[in-house]
Structures are given as C-alpha cells and as structure tokens.
Records
---
Amino acid sequence: MILANLAKPTQVVKSGMTLREALDICVKCDVPGVPFVDDAGEIIGRICIRETLRKTCIPSYVVDAAHVLGDDIHEVNIPELHAVDLLSQPVDHFILATVITVTSQSPVIKGLAILEQLQSDYLFLVDDGDYKGVVTHMGIAQRLLEAVAGDDVI
Amino acid sequence: MPNPELALNANMYIAGATLILAYILIFSEVIHRTSAAIIGAVVMVGVGMFRGFYTQEQALVAVDGNTILLLTGMMMIVVMLRPTGGFEYLAIRIAKLSQGDPRRLLVYLGAAVSLVTMFLDNVTTVLIFAPLTVLITRILGINPLPYLFAEAMLSNIGGIATLVGDPPNIIIGSAGNIDFTTFLVHMFPPVLVIWLGTVVVILFMFRSYLEPTDKNLLDLDESKAITDKTGLVKGMIALCITVLLFFVHHRFHFYPAYVAFIGVAIAAALLRPDPEPVFGKVEWSVLFFFAGLFVIVGGVEASGLLDLIGHRFAEVAQDPSQLMITGVLLMWAAAILSAVVDNIPFTVTMTPIIVGLESQGVNITPLWWALALGVGLGGNGSHIGATANVICVAESERCGIPEARITPLMWLRIGMPTMIFGLILATVLYISFFSFFT
C-alpha cells in the first residue's frame, strides 16, 4: 500500500487569508493541518489546529497542571471569549515553519515511521513540488479497515 | 607586620589574570558559564604547569569532592522524588489552606518554598512551584506577580538556613568543616528573623496587589497531583532518613556527601528507578561549573596569591576588635557582588582565603557565617542574583499575562531594597549576637 491511495486532497492556505478560513479548510477536510504556500505555490509552512489552539487558548501553566484541574476554573482562560478576535487575525501569525513531506509513491510503513519519529499526526504528500494531499493516522486506519473488509490486495 | 617573603610575583600575576579573564568570560555570558569555567580551568592548569606552580595532581585535589558529590546526591534524590507529584500536592494543599486570602496565600506559599529549599535544591522547587502559583492565582483572579517575587526571594533566604540549602553553604561547610547541626543552630535563628522581616516588606510593597477578593474556591484536586503514591512514600522515607543523618553525620564522622548518597542508595533500593533518566536529569553542567571553578581557584591558591591576600586581611582580622567589622564588611561585599554576579565564584574564591586566615591565628568562625549570609541575601538584589530569580522572571514572561511580567528594572526596584533591608537585619543580629557567631 502506498501513500498516494490514502491522501486527502485539501486546499492550501496563503498569505492574506484569515485564521478562520484556514481552520475552516481543516475542519471541512477533516485534517489536523494544511500546507501554507507562497506566491509561487511552494509549500513554506503549515497551519496546525493543535498548535494554533495551544498558542492561543492554552496557557502553559494550565498545561503543566492539567491533571489536577477541576471543572469550575472559569478565570484562567476561556477560548470562546477570544474566538471572535482570534479567528479574524491573519493566518501568517500562526504558520509553523517545519513541514513534513513525502512522495505519494512512498510506502505506508515509511509514512508511519516518519509520523512516529516526529511525533506528528499528519504529513503532506508532495511530488516534484506538486502538493497532493494530507495523510493522517485516521486515513491509514480507515484504508486498512476498508482493505480488510473488501478483501483487497494491499 | 607584612611577611617579606609574601610579595607579588610573576606566577601570582599570571594566576590572577587567568582568574579574572575566566570570571569575565563567565559573567559576560558570551558562552555558557560551564564552558567558560572548563576553559578557565584548562588554561589555569596549562599556565600553571608551564610556569611550574600548579600541577594536574594539585588541580584534581583542588576539586572539592564533598561539595560535588553532595550536590549530585541531593539532585538525584530530587529527580527520583519529582515524578511522584509530591511537590505539586504540597503547593495545592498549602494554597487551599489560605482559603483564597491573597496575603495568607503569599505567606503560606513563601513558607512552603522556604522550608523545602532548606533541604532540597531550590531551582527544582521553584521550577515546580512557579507555574502552579500562576495557575492558583489566576483561578483566584489575582495577579501572580507578587507571588513569583516572594517565592524567589524567600527561597533564597530559606536556603541560607542549612548546610545543604544552598550551593555556597555546601562549599562553606566543606571548607570550614562545619557540620549540619552547627550550621542550622547558627543560621536558622537569623534566617527566621530575616525571613519574617522580608515577608513584612513584601506584603507592604505589594499591598495594592493583595487586596481581598470574593473568590476563594480553588478548584484543583491535589489528590490527582500524586501520580505515584507508593513512590512518594518510599521517596519521602529516603529523604527523611537522609535529613536525620544530616543532623548526626558529624558523630559518625560521615561526610555530608556520603549521607546524601546513603539517601540515594535507599531511594534507589526502594524505588528501583531506571538509572538512565535519573542520571540524565542530574544537572551535570552545574557540577562541572563547580569543578571548573575549584580548579581555577586552586591555581590561584597554588601561586600563593590567595595567601598574600589572606595575609593582608589577617593584619586587620587578627585584632579581635576588628574581627566583627571584618565580618560585616565581608557580608556586605559578598551580598553586593552576589547581586551583580554569580555568588558561586565569589564563594569559591573566598573560602581558601578565609581558611588561610586560620593559620595566622584569626578566629574564622564568624567569617563563615558572614559569608553565608552575604552570598545568600545578595541573591535577592537583582533578577540575575540567583537562579530562582531567573526562573520566576522566565515564568512571569511565559505565562503571557502582561501585568504579571517582571522586568529587570522592576526586580531592582523591589529586590534591592528588600536585599538591603535583609542585610541590615542580618548586620544588626550579627553585631548584637557576635559572641554567638564566634
């Protein structure tokens, strides 16, 4: 099984878009992150739901004590209060520079190994600079189930 | 009468220059201080061998094994204790006892941090308490700024009270052959007075931040803080035995370092940790920093320069009526230098000078206490005066709350008067009870 069969095609994010538009792409395509491209269409970064939420909604001192938090902590931070301001901000402020890419002909095991090594939930398929889509753990698991159910040759 | 044989010579100039250059490299932070100390040590041994005043064997002997191993042992005990969640449990429990009252919260958290740092590494203590303090204060709707200040300053003061509370104390205790109990008996009373006085000063300086609020519910579950109950119990058994042994180590002629490793051995036997993470989390850079400093100062000592300096001091300190003034001046000089630069190099440099005074008939006992008080209190004077300060400043920036951000100027405005107040208290106590300190 190669990764080409498992990629979810998505739109890409560009400078000038808002965070709302970027997250909208992620949610509609059901992926944790999408690529950020420059004017020439080359991938130069990524937008990641988890990192965006971490940076904007979760103070570090809350993360450190997450296991002892009760349900009645209202003063620490409330993402809903910040949502309107946050989502209208330019996406450029939230771009991560590190990008994980493999070719679409790479085998699944290579993709899984890279995801594991870099502790990531997704990677981008890129063939000769041409973006093909996002591969996630969920996508791999889904394809495995489909393959077994349909008795496909993997 | 000056000793005619003790005059500045070329070796002293070279050793002194090497020391000064090494310290400039350390304090300038052009490179990491540990790297600077290692470079300085290598250069000192090199020039010493070339000039014939310092050998590699002397350099090895100069490294105080008791200090290095005591630090290592206590670090390993903390590393084994930390994952159990005991520190976090303590912080939350203490905070809940305050029932949401801002002033009580500050005093209780400050007391907790001070007590812990009397026996355990204050860097780790503050590293754990600071983020929890920010969370606790945010839940209560109050500004964490005074609490971060208080924890840093009070942990510095608390650490002065015991032989193991502070790296300078370990160095002083080792050089002066002072046992744990003697250290505690002489330092705890003045530290207690200074601590109380500092709390009053902090409560006054931050009075506008500490007005009562209507929030007193601290919705944190401290029982969930403990991630390994059995491990915590076992770790505490090892720690308690270690502390008890510290009280009596002199009776058994045990070095404090040996006591620390008895604790490590007990903790290792009970907890059976994977050694890789335990050894991995020991702060080797700190230990090598110390080792480098010992080698550098050992070279200066071998050149005879410290002996010469000691003789000049002895001319004053030999007179019993001048000994008290010498102690006071040493305390203040130590404090001011510790506020500006790292207190460890100053302590390492002063200890052989003070030891040398003893051979010239000076009662050096009060000088040890003056040095311990000075380097300990001086840490509060600036944001870089102590590592605990650096941690709290970093936490104030990391928490992302603009009104909680501690700037260097703010620290100077708060910390310097607090330090001077503490020093004045210490000086009054030192003079008033000078016979006790002799």
---
Amino acid sequence: MNARRLRGLGIAGGIVIALELVCRAGLVRPTDLVPPTTMVAAMLRALADTATLEDLATTVAAVAASVILAFFVGMIGGVILHGLPRVRRACEPFIASYYALPLFALYPVLVVILGVGRAPVVFTGVLYAAMAVLISTLSGLDHIRPVFRKAARVHRLSPLGTLLRVSIPACATEILGGITLAVSYAFVAVIASEFLLAPAGIGHAIADAYTSFQIERMYGLMLVLALLVLAINGALRKVRTRLGAVA
Amino acid sequence: MTLSRTSRALEVAAVCIVLLVLWQAAASWIGGATLPGPMPTGRRLFALLFDGRFQRDLAATAGAYVVALVLTMAGGLLLGIVCGGWRSVGEQIEPALLALIATPKVMFYPVILLFFGLGDSAKIFFGMLHGLPTIVIMIANALRSLPPIYRKVALTLKLSRHQFAVHVLIPAVLPEVVASLRVSFALTLLGVLVGEMFASTRGLGHLLFASIGTNDQPTILAVTVLLFAFAGIGSTLLLALSRKLASASPIS
C-alpha cells in the first residue's frame, strides 16, 4: 500500500518535473503553457488577492445553497414517488435517462427567467444535484427492513410520523451517500454555469483571465480550483467509505 | 407481455403529457416572450429542421459527435483493457481518472483552446475528455470482476488466447461494454456541445450560445428540446439493450 502510494507520488513528481523542463526549454509557447512553479506562484498571488477569495466564497456558497435545496427537493420527490408506485414506474425511464440530458442547455432560459445573478447558477446546481438525492432516497426506502414498518404500526404512528421517525432515519445512510454525490454534481453545474454567463465566481474568474490574456493567472486559478475540488472529493470519498462501512 | 409493454408506453406517454402541460402552465405564468410554450417551440423546431443553416449546424455537431464517440469508445476500451488487465497500471491511472470524472472539465477549456484552436478538433477532444475516463473505469471494473471460474474453465478446456477472448471474455463483458456505451453516449454529447459553445463557429452548441446573444428564446428551447429528445431516446434504447444483455449474461 505504502509502496504503491510512493510509486504514484514518484510518477506525479516525474510528470511535474518533465512539464517544468519542457516549459523552461521553450518547447511550448509561454502563452500556451506556463511551468508548474509559475503556476504555483500565480496561485499564491491569486490567493493573496481578496477578489479571488470572494470569488471562491461565491462559488462555495452557490454549491452549498444548491446542495441544501437539492436535499429537500430530492428527498421530498423521492418520498412522494415511493408512495405512488404507478407514477414511479412511469417516471423510471426518465429517471434512468436524466443524467444523459444536457441540462446546462436550459441555463440560457433560466437566465432570462431568473435574471443574471446567482439564482440561475443555483437553480442549475439544484437541477443536477436533486436527482442524486432522489435516487438515493428511493433506493433507501426500498431497502427498509419490514420490521421497522411493523414497529411503527405497533406504536400506531401516523403516516407522517412513520416517515419522519422511522423511514427517513432508517435510510439516512443511503440519503447521505446521495448527498455526497450531489455535492460533486452541484460543483460541476455551478462551475459550468459560471463559465457560461455568471458575473462572479471562480469559474467566471478563470474565463475572465483567459479572455484578458492573463495566462499565468488563469493557470494559477485553475490550480486553486483543481486543489479545492480534489480536497472536497477526497473528503466525500472518505465519508462514502465510512457510510459504506456503517451500512 | 404485449399488454404490459402497451401499458408502459401509455404510462410514459402520460408523463410526457403531464410535462407538456406543466411547461405550458409555466409559459402562461411567466409570459410567452420569456418562456415560449410547447406550441411555439414545436413550430420553431419544425421551421428550423427545414432551414439550411440549421441543417449545417446539425451536421457539424453530428459529425464531431460521431468521431468523438468512436474515439471515446475505442480509446476507453483499449485503456480499460490495459487498466483491468495489468493491476499495477490500473492502480496508477485509475485514481487520476476518478479525480478527472469529479472535476468540472469545463475549466480546462481555455487550455484546450490554446492547444487545439477553434474548430472540430477542440470539440472532439472536449467530448472525449468528458466520456473517456468513465468508460476506462467501467471496462477495467468489468474485467476485474470476471469470475475466476471462467479462466479455470478456459484452462481446463485448453482454449487458446484467441478462443478465450472470443468465446469467454467478449461475451462476459459485453453487457458492461453496452452499459459504458450508454454512459459515453450521453457524456460525449455533453462534452461536444460544451466545446461548441466556447470553441466553435458551427454546431448546435454554437447556435445555442449565439441565440443567447440575440435573446432568441424559441430557438434556444427548440434546440434544447431536440437535444433532450435525442439524448433521452438514445439513452432509453441503450438502457433496454444493456438490461437485455445483462439478463442474458451467464454472470447475472
């Protein structure tokens, strides 16, 4: 395990050094690719700038808002569909093909309806993230042990009481797994929307650096975003593994 | 069987009608100029289909998409076989691909533009960037989860490598290959469209982006509906095929 990690680090280090040498030797134009050391320096410069930190905060806030909304929309949708088996069966082909749809194509329409600002960004994030929560809620409700429902009947719980006190806590692990997926989806949707038309956010900052020929800043910001996404996904994977272990 | 198939089709049709009614209600509520309803969108789509410029855009997207899909599947199969077949290679490549899958790939578009310039190659590469990593992981996993008994049987029957590949390996992983085709079908389309939005002067993605500039809502919705229909129908057909193959597969 340790040797594997060391080998991986060695390969990654080798690629970075090779990239540095290729750039320093002038084999690629500095307007196309900058050396990794310059990228890191640009990243540190960008992070010292409050505007970048504000952009990062804007992006993270949009992702958080999308995930919170997606949690409620997805869970309520999942509970309703689970309670209506015929409707669920009819919707199944749409659920299965949902992520095949180029949902971001709706972004321009959302901009016209909701205006330029954070609302269409968050809405796109919810569109992407909610289905992950809905699917995990359905799967969780499908796998509840019958004894839980029997216990609820013995205690004469109302349908709402059964749902809130028995069903949802019983499938909390699955729903949490869905939320970790929803965070990844929301991130992808928010960054993509920011690139397209949004007036703020880290995605917008990268597009802005590119269009104003600030190539070093562009690579620095990309590095910031890549490290942020890697850190968040690493943490989410750990949560999923732990949830898997609990389940 | 036929009855259940008919009732399923009716149920799907009912959901479609409900969606159309909701769309119409939203259009009436928001206003037809901001959100055109299903009827004006349908009329615009019909008109666009006979428009020469739109046909050229459609052909440009279709051409780039087919090339990107073929390259994604071929590259994904090849790399998937390498990763699934050689554990040490897979251990090094797969974590990087998993990270790439969860990364918003649109952030790489300036780099791709710098290297490929405006044109077909940029959007084809964008399509591959979206589709390829998932295919590699799926194929590698399919190879790794091959029951050991298959190899033992092949050894007992003294099958040659070629016979093992044709009679055991390919039929065993075929359902997973079709499943990965379904995934790449959607992801590659997404990648090509995103590529066209930024890195192209032709294609449906470019038309969408240009329509945003001219505030041409009916065209935006008509193109979106066309893309949704294509992605939805294609994905449903491939899902049905992959389920059929999976239920026929000896592994299941």
